[in-house]
Design goal:
Distance between the termini: 43 Å
Radius of gyration: 17 Å
Shape: globular
Mean pLDDT: 89
Helix content: 25-40%
Structural class: alpha+beta
Oligomer: single chain
Order of helices and strands: EEEHEEEHHEEEEEEHH
Strand order of the largest sheet: 1-2-3-5-4
Low-confidence stretches: none
Number of strands: 12
Largest sheet: 5 strands, antiparallel
Length: about 190
């Protein structure tokens, strides 16, 4: 069962004996705009390494490793039942995106930043029901972070603050506001 399709990979539901049932298995795909297949496969290993560190500081699923299934490498994690925050309907955004959730993301990104991690592509899932993830019980509407290949190390407080501000704007401002800012920025810096 296909769970999702991103720019660099595809995620399937699957089981691996000795690891678990109902897992998320992410494999690389060819996308000329986002690197070749070899680079995208390498990112599975980078994502696993990053997740091992980042998940010490923010809520995310357990990442089990990169496993070969029928000759294909898959990054394996526990499956989360929910929606990517960018896929929420307007009604779901009103229901789930609260001042408390905004503060949670700010706090989580600040904690990650204090430990030397920032991202240029924050991916957040909104849980659709109560679930136990990485040994902790979460409720419907709670936020869980996924997809770590774009996270990187930094020692710059300025970089951390800039990334936090940017990611909060992308996630929590309405698409219309973000589009207006993009147009304004494009006008300031014509190509």
């Amino acid at each position: 069962e296909k769970l999702g399709d991103g720019t660099r990979g595809v995620v399937f539901r699957g089981d691996i004996e000795g690891v678990g049932d109902n897992l998320a298995l992410k494999t690389a795909k060819i996308n000329p705009e986002q690197g070749n297949l070899e680079k995208n496969v390498d990112e599975l290993f980078i994502e696993f390494k990053n997740a091992q560190e980042i998940c010490k500081y923010i809520p995310c699923p357990t990442y089990h490793g990169v496993y070969e299934v029928d000759g294909v490498p898959f990054l394996v994690s526990d499956r989360i039942e929910g929606k990517n925050i960018f896929d929420l309907t307007d009604e779901e955004r009103v229901r789930y995106i609260t001042a408390e959730k905004t503060q949670q993301v700010r706090t989580d990104l600040t904690t990650a930043g204090k430990n030397g991690w920032v991202t240029d592509d924050l991916q957040v899932m909104v849980l659709s029901k109560q679930q136990t993830i990485a040994g902790k019980v979460y409720q419907e509407g709670d936020l869980i972070y996924i997809d770590f290949p774009q996270w990187r190390r930094t020692s710059s407080t300025s970089d951390v603050n800039t990334r936090i501000k940017s990611e909060l704007e992308v996630i929590f401002e309405s698409p219309g506001i973000v589009a207006k800012k993009a147009v304004a920025t494009r006008k300031k810096f014509p190509i």
